[in-house]
Specification:
two-stranded parallel ribbon; six-stranded parallel β-sheet; globular; alpha/beta; binds NADP nicotinamide-adenine-dinucleotide phosphate; Rossmann fold
Length: 300
Amino acid sequence: MRHYNKILLTGIHGQLGHALKPALEKLGTVIALDREKLDLSQPDSIRAAVRLIKPDLIINPAAYTAVDLAESESEIAHAINGIAPGIFAEEAASINALLVHYSTGFVFDGKKTHAYSEDDVAAPINAYGSSKLAGEEAIRESEASHLILRTNWVYSAYGKNFMLKILELAQTRSELRIINDQFGNPTSTNTIVNATIPALSAWEPGHTGTYHLVDQGETSWHGFAQEIIQQYEHLALKKNLPALATSANRVLGIPTADYPTPAQRPAQSSLNTEKLRTSFKLELPHWQEDLRQVMAAIAA
Ligand SMILES: NC(=O)c1ccc[n+]([C@@H]2O[C@H](COP(=O)([O-])OP(=O)(O)OC[C@H]3O[C@@H](n4cnc5c(N)ncnc54)[C@H](OP(=O)(O)O)[C@@H]3O)[C@@H](O)[C@H]2O)c1
């Protein structure tokens, strides 16, 4: 297993940063900086932090992730998602550090009928997607060794996410109406960590590039919500958990048009993971199985 001396990790209070920290500790000494210690909207503090720490690995899961708010706060979203990754890349190149950065299937316009591969042209349709694409491009244009890992619909037992929101709403509402014409890949932070660590262990300079990292299979937000409730119902029977107010057959599908939001979202953001699986000889779980593991951990 490849060892790193100093690993600079951002976003440790976010879903992914929180999950990455203990796993990265097996690869080297982790210096984890939250927003208070390193504000990504301040390029000079990024430069100062990297120059002080001199890491040989930089992992950047921090991001401006409020997709709707980004429409009215596009400048700050661009600073954090578009500019900061490029500064990390410049600094990484100057000290020969590897940069690992996370991006999103929302860089695509969603007009494709099946999963996007890394060769497909990115054409974001909202401010968040544009800011994330700018960050990717700044890294690709740099001289830094890098891995850009695009993922989708991230959830975990920790933090803010769709799975926890559905479980919360289902405690009090007898019916849920969820969008059924946007498709993507629900992906737990477990999957992202379980792929990031072997990729880092097996890292060679020839691996530099952009990869898709999501669970296998795709569904709609409605399909995801229904599965969450169904799996909870199953667990509730087995483990004697309190019943929800919403039953799985009361999770109703609605079109995007019935749920207007400030940001437009791609109808299709599913990602094809073949490049990552073959390059790093990895297996990725099916999203329903992955969800089962996370729900079982919550129930326990
Ligand atoms: N969530 C998804 O569904 C999803 C889907 C596709 C791709 N992604 C990508 O996956 C990565 C991880 O997402 P996530 O779900 O873990 O996000 P998250 O839970 O929203 O966490 C984001 C983290 O970024 C930090 N952050 C925000 N602004 C900052 C700033 N100015 N300076 C320093 N830190 C700042 C936040 O700090 P505070 O804790 O202080 O707010 C938080 O810790 C991101 O690159 C995201 O774009 C996420």
